[in-house]
Design goal:
Elements lengths: L1 H22 L11 E4 L3 E6 L16 E10 L4 E11 L6 E12 L7 E9 L4 E10 L5 E9 L2
Antiparallel strand pairs: 1-2, 2-3, 3-6, 4-5, 4-7, 7-8
């Protein structure tokens, strides 16, 4: 009987610990990197910073973490590509722009993807939105896709 109570108490303590940790998870965190999302046209991959550049932005504990991002065209060749990163803003419906960049062309057979080597993301952020705007080869029509990375 004592062993049973001990095991029950230990299990209850573990359950409370796990429950408590789940409640405190308020910010967007990437438990597993790389974190990838795909559509018919694009692959967006968030990963750890791979550069050892001494001038690169360094993570600041309690304020922001740093990540890298690679974006590849996997279907049609794209021109006039614009990529913007936004995060949510605490107590606001507005989104905060982190990075934006443009590239004249991004072809599906490019060996080098569109790459952000190092960008900061607030530890308070709950969502990261990647907005890609482009034109298909030979067309004047704009296309846009959004990829949202959020806490689970």
């Amino acid at each position: 009987m004592k062993k049973y109570l001990f095991l029950f108490s230990f299990s209850l303590a573990v359950m409370l610990f796990v429950f408590d940790n789940n409640i405190q998870a308020h910010a967007l965190t990437f438990n597993q990197l790389p974190n990838t999302q795909k559509s018919d046209q694009w692959t967006v991959e968030i990963d750890k910073v791979k550069s050892n550049d001494p001038h690169a932005i360094k993570a600041k504990k309690g304020v922001y973490q740093t990540y890298s991002m690679a974006i590849k065209s996997i279907k049609n060749d794209a021109s006039d590509v614009r990529i913007e990163l936004f995060r949510d803003e605490e107590d606001s419906t507005s989104k905060y722009g982190i990075v934006n960049s443009e590239r004249e062309t991004l072809n599906r057979d490019d060996k080098e993807p569109f790459y952000f080597a190092n960008f900061p993301l607030s530890e308070k952020a709950k969502k990261l939105e990647v907005v890609i705007t482009w034109k298909e080869k030979g067309s004047d029509r704009n296309y846009q896709e959004r990829f949202t990375f959020s806490q689970d």
